[in-house]
Amino acid sequence: MSLQKHDFPSWIQPDNPGPWGIFLQQIDRVAPYLGSLSRWIETLKRPKRALIVDIPIELDNGTIAHFEGYRVQHNLSLGPGKGGVRFHQDVCLSEVMALAGWMSIKNAAINLPYGGAKGGIRIDVSKYSRKELEKVTRRYTSEIGLIIGPQKDIPAPDVNTNPQVMAWMMDTYSQNIGTTATGVVTGKPIALGGSLGRVEATGRGVFVVACEAARDKGLSIPGARVAVQGFGNVGGTAARLFAEAGALVVAVADHTGIIFNANGLNIPALTDYVAEHKGVKGFPEAEAIEADKFWGAEVDILIPAALEQQITLENVDLIKAKIIVEGANGPTTPQADDVLSQKGVYLVPDVIANAGGVTVSYFEWVQDFSSFFWTEDEINQRLERIMRQAYRSISEVAQQHGVSLRTAAYIVACSRILQARDLRGLYP
Ligand SMILES: NC(=O)c1ccc[n+]([C@@H]2O[C@H](COP(=O)([O-])OP(=O)(O)OC[C@H]3O[C@@H](n4cnc5c(N)ncnc54)[C@H](O)[C@@H]3O)[C@@H](O)[C@H]2O)c1
């Protein structure tokens, strides 16, 4: 279905809609499966609220700089908004709108009591000092303070934001309302109400759903051959858990290079090496390979856990993996996705596979409300249970309709959101 001019709000260019255009196409694709709820579909095609703010700060050299900041609440039918804050020079309204929409889908697919939101500042962090970044963060938080709050919308880290940025956001919001409100953001440092297990949560979730997918496909994890793109928070944790479970992680790619060992890489040694050398390049006991050999490696499981748009029409034909588990957000282009489906590759989409992070963010928020903190074992067990249940319910829907797991995840998520919309009704 092609999108018409009137499908876009006046502040998005119909001839260049950016990521929001992709989100709209995904929603259109799921509409035929929504039955009577499809009468509410337009709800998903417009964000509930989009706030654009000006962020002026005094730089270290005494001049004044202005930055553009956003907070978009895509849908709040199921609960307060939840989604990260991205600091990047290319952040724009269309991107933040799409990311907020994808958070609505992810939160609903995993059945968390949240709507979807996202924020961002258009800034190149490499050009500013820590003090300048603190000022930008605090002014941004104060400006979006109108619409965020522990019961309203709870930001979290995303690209180029981290626990320190969350600590500044929490402090700024708390200063403005006159009381410490730890629950206004998640992904905080442990000492400020952060949760144990948060750092590893996304990689752990990737591993858990990969085990479920392997079971469905009759593949045993001990001895399975795995390739991982990205050896950071998500890819590094997932690789470690696979290796601990007896899988052979034979290929790892990062921004410095690609390494291969047919007998399985020594992941603890690689982790130490990357901590010291800031990348996998030059790791001993491994052969350096080219990108084509990485994508075409004889593996059972492939984990893209680096960037978006990595599996494309250029490399999709090379792929021999039986299962792909998307650790990154949006690593597969829609065209490559169709080819993978035709090839019979079993793909667990990002909206389920990397939802471990937001799930433990939810635990952090719950713990902050009760000021009672759980052990890491409790957190990991609850995380694993939620991830397994989400995977199971989505794979049942996929079988029922004969569709991919990605379409099934959108069916489950959109049905939950629109059912809430239907039950709540329109006001007035
Ligand atoms: N961290 C989380 O909780 C979380 C949650 C959900 C989704 N994600 C997604 O997972 C992905 C990775 O996030 P992360 O937190 O692990 O980031 P990270 O910064 O810790 O690691 C990123 C990794 O990708 C590698 N990389 C960068 N450019 C590359 C390139 N051109 N080719 C190959 N590798 C490259 C880097 O070397 C690094 O190893 C992102 O898409 C992110 O949005 C992360």
Automatic annotation (TrEMBL):
The active site lies at: K118
The cross-references to InterPro entries, in alphabetical order and at most eight, read: Aminoacid_DH-like_N_sf, Glu/Leu/Phe/Val/Trp_DH, Glu/Leu/Phe/Val/Trp_DH_C, Glu/Leu/Phe/Val/Trp_DH_dimer, Glu_DH, NAD(P)-bd_dom_sf, NAD_bind_Glu_DH
> Per UniProt, where does NAD(+) bind?
T202, N233
Q: Which residues form the Glutamate/phenylalanine/leucine/valine/L-tryptophan dehydrogenase C-terminal domain?
A: 195-425
Q: Where are the transmembrane segments?
A: none
Residues bound to substrate are: K82, K106, S361
On whether Nucleotide-binding is a keyword of this UniProt record, the answer is yes
Q: Spell out the residues of the site Important for catalysis.
A: D158
Q: Which GO terms describe its molecular function?
A: glutamate dehydrogenase (NAD+) activity; nucleotide binding
Task: Supply the Pfam families for this chain.
Answer: ELFV_dehydrog, ELFV_dehydrog_N
Keywords carried by this UniProt record: NAD, Nucleotide-binding, Oxidoreductase
Among the GO biological process terms of this entry, one is: L-glutamate catabolic process
Superkingdom is Bacteria
- PANTHER family noted in UniProt: GLUTAMATE DEHYDROGENASE, GLUTAMATE DEHYDROGENASE 1, MITOCHONDRIAL
- Into which family does the record put it? Belongs to the Glu/Leu/Phe/Val dehydrogenases family.
Name of the featured protein: Glutamate dehydrogenase
